[in-house]
Specification:
alpha+beta, five-stranded antiparallel sheet, 4 helices, globular
Length: 177
């Protein structure tokens, strides 16, 4: 694994802590949850397909990313507003593992994927979501925590290649429903 930056990197000192932390989107005192409003109208037939998730059911929605550099990068969100694993209702928490396995299988089926990394960063929106990053076969410098760093600096993938990967992932989930 290798950083996608040339040496020498210079260590920075952390900034002073900000306490209390500012509210995130979807938290009391923060901006309203945009995911909740976006997810609420999924059954609207007038809505354009590009304005809908790639796939969804009553509990989960699999969504396309923007500015994709590695085809197959997608993110999964709960349909209802929950912040983290700690506050997922038991039934939704039980369905999480099988859902992640289905998404992973769909991404691996794209071919030339060595591994699928699953990441949850809790500092963005307060609406539960996890990211799936496929590590391209042979891209050993992007192993482990390096993959999202590499994904940030690679050139954007051709839109038609990204759309093809998204269509295949969506079709695999639909077939597995």
């Amino acid at each position: 694994m290798t950083l996608p930056y040339a040496e020498p990197l210079v260590r920075r000192e952390p900034q002073p802590r900000v306490i209390p932390e500012p509210p995130r989107v979807g938290e009391p005192g923060g901006d309203p949850c945009g995911l909740c409003s976006w997810l609420s109208g999924l059954d609207d037939t007038a809505r354009d397909a590009e304005d809908k998730p790639l796939w969804y059911d009553a509990d989960w929605a699999l969504c396309r990313a923007t500015g994709v550099t590695i085809p197959g990068v997608v993110w999964l969100t709960s349909r209802a507003h929950h912040d983290s694993f700690a506050d997922l209702p038991d039934a939704l928490a039980r369905s999480y593992g099988p859902m992640v396995a289905r998404v992973e299988r769909a991404i691996l089926a794209l071919g030339d994927i060595a591994r699928v990394h699953v990441y949850r960063w809790g500092d963005g929106s307060a609406h539960f979501h996890v990211w799936f990053y496929p590590r391209p076969l042979g891209m050993l410098e992007a192993k482990r925590e390096m993959l999202p760093l590499w994904a940030e600096v690679l050139p954007e993938a051709p839109k038609e290649v990204v759309a093809d990967a998204e269509d295949k992932i969506a079709a695999a989930l639909a077939a597995d429903s």
